[in-house]
Amino acid sequence: MERVAIIGASMTRFGQRDAWVRELLAEAGEAALSDAGIDGDDVEHLYVSNMASGEFEGQTGVPNALAHDLDALPAYTARIDQTSSSGGAGVYAAWQSVAAGASELTMLVGGEKMTHRTTAEATDVIASLTHPVEYKHGVTLPSFAGLTARLYLDTYDAPRESLGKVAVKNHRNGVDNPHAQFRKEVDLDTVLDSPMVADPLRLYDFCPITDGSAALVFCPESVAAEYVPEGEYAVISGIGGATDTHVVHERADPTTMGGVVDSSTIAYEMAGIGPDDVDVAELHDMFTILEFLQSEDLGFFEKGKGWKAVEEGVTDRDGELPINTSGGLKSKGHPLGASGVAQVYEIYQQLTGNAGPRQVEADIGLACNVGGFGNCVTTTIMEASQ
Amino acid sequence: MERVAIIGASMTRFGQRDAWVRELLAEAGEAALSDAGIDGDDVEHLYVSNMASGEFEGQTGVPNALAHDLDALPAYTARIDQTSSSGGAGVYAAWQSVAAGASELTMLVGGEKMTHRTTAEATDVIASLTHPVEYKHGVTLPSFAGLTARLYLDTYDAPRESLGKVAVKNHRNGVDNPHAQFRKEVDLDTVLDSPMVADPLRLYDFCPITDGSAALVFCPESVAAEYVPEGEYAVISGIGGATDTHVVHERADPTTMGGVVDSSTIAYEMAGIGPDDVDVAELHDMFTILEFLQSEDLGFFEKGKGWKAVEEGVTDRDGELPINTSGGLKSKGHPLGASGVAQVYEIYQQLTGNAGPRQVEADIGLACNVGGFGNCVTTTIMEASQ
């Protein structure tokens, strides 16, 4: 199997944007072409990660629109949807296209336009991914998060404050991310005093509704240096995808995300490394509790000890294993189809030394993108090229 | 690149079904597992081809639901959308997963549930794939078809009756397809006297709105005989995907489908064959005029001569190049995400000698799945295994 490199990347400003998803995709796509130093018509496969352009704005066929706008015709195009982990699934599809030898230059652009809808409407579109047996009881992803957070705190004797510290950390990181939706620090009291959403989780435990887009350019590792200098590309050394039960209440232990365990096991094996080898990670902190669960299920910390790592600063930017140097979904925002792509964008920036004030020392990075409430997960491991 | 075999296939009855898309997908998926003699948990990658489960029935995350229902956890899952050619794009994704070595056993299930919506509603969901500059003028795919049919008849001096003969032929084939929505012959007068829809096209020039699902199981050719006897599998010898302009009026010649030309060029080259080598083909006859265009753009007939081939019986079941032995979208129905999968199902049945009363002599078959009005196209070429 051919190893696959990433030779260019971009993301738009995340936040409330006065542009439709077609326009956001084109903005990120053009910037990534420029970053890789290629033209649209060099692209052989063009994937779009997007969950719900039809539901959000009555526009489908967005890969066709993007191919048109980037002058990438007659590239093969498709939309990859895996709900909130569409971006990670798109990385998987793009990787696969190059690994198979079906495409030499593949572009992935993820995006979503959401803020023109009310939070209730957007939450309901997202909740449509749940099983009807749960949906009809009014279950949404935030409600699952509240229930799980309560169970986690009780089971592992973790203080409520530890969840708040995830938000504080990620907001602090986001200040240095020019693309982030929120570039402001928040203190712990602000988080703990914010309005209750799903007990024990409060407003600042949740990511916002966001518009935005991010893009990546892939090619075989063997030719990457023909496009950009060594050091300016990164290599996907391991990638895995896995699915958990559709009905969340059927899971034996709701504090373990099976999809994270299974997808990372595949990715670690392909990369020939273990969790201790990872230098920097982007996790799917749609809710603060999810950062704990993933940091444990990826093997970074023992089960029930993820909260301590945050308390002790291990996951701070200057800690032993910086997590969410981008600001995470929490401060950067969560435009569904873009988020998994933007995670890989951040790891790419870190591994190529282009993360500016967010830069940490890292040779190996990991991105974990979670769809639904752990329903579908893609874990991507990347290495620096020098 | 590893060659990829198809070792199992199924399709549900197409038509008006009292079942949601989740249920239709599971019905086809279970039957295909059984046909291949494998269990759900043997499946490593599970793809779902579907355009619009969210818009049609407020249910997203259907690959997760299907993995759950087939006991295929923790298989990697994703939804592949390429509008009306989602099925062909799904075949491409499934092929790629095996060709890349990322999955040994991959399942693809395509499906759509549409008939609970009015024809106007369904047509509008489909029209959401058009460019806003055209959509706002009320353009739908049927209206493009009418304009193109008029241009074709005028340019190539073809009689109106030739279009009707596509419908007559495909309905005749559909009588022998137990899965088809319409199993009745229609005579030419019935077609020509049916209600006008988009001049010169009338009701019988259009495929219906349909519910249904179809499924395929893929593995490397090198291990196919471990699952099913030689002769009972078929091999994908060539596959290509291509995209045309999003704005249809920007095409130089609307009677040529660039995506069909480009995707088939790639597929023929990969297969090492030419159009004359094809023994049987399934084309995307969403509208009768499309069968003419594709039969020419695939190189079966000279430009402007496709209508003559139909008039002369060349594409009849007992003709030199049988086209749409399944009954085509015209009589079989067109559940968007299922159609491209069902095309490959039919070719698979023909190449393995399991097409029953529809059986023709064929060693090489081709399926051409068209999204939008030629916006996105996947062409798949298959060979018999003995």
TrEMBL record, chains A, B:
GO MF annotations, alphabetized: acyltransferase activity, transferring groups other than amino-acyl groups
Segments passing through the bilayer: none
Keyword terms, alphabetized: Isoprene biosynthesis, Transferase
Residues in Thiolase N-terminal domain copies: 4-222
Example GO biological process: isoprenoid biosynthetic process
Pfam family, one: Thiolase_C_1
Occurrences of domain Thiolase C-terminal (ranges): 240-383
CDD domains according to UniProt: SCP-x_thiolase (cd00829)
InterPro entries in the record: Thiolase, Thiolase-like, Thiolase_C_2, Thiolase_N
Name the record gives this protein: Acetyl-CoA C-acetyltransferase
